[in-house]
Amino acid sequence: MDSEIITLVAAVIGIFGDLIAITGYLSKKNEGHSGFSVSFLNSVSQKVYAYLFASATWILLVLVWFLGFEPYGPFILDREANQLVAIMMSFPVTIAFLFSAKHLFSGGSNAT
Known about the structure:
112 residues, mainly alpha, 73% helix, flat, membrane
């Protein structure tokens, strides 16, 4: 996969993820008050928006690091592109794993 495609897809996912997370958070926050509120955005928990915001921001931070410092030089190989994708996915996967493990070992109690 070409590095330009990886950076473009990562940027689009990161930007749209952050926009959806911020919009959903504001909508959920103003649910009972006057102000910006969208009904289908209010049906999702704020924890989902926090996860989406943290994950999308992590992807953008990795992308900025990659484009700013060029750790692989001006040309990257397929192996290096795979490493970049793995770095981008490490934080969201770790958060999802920890959340799942928390529910697994909670003993049936509300672990949210």
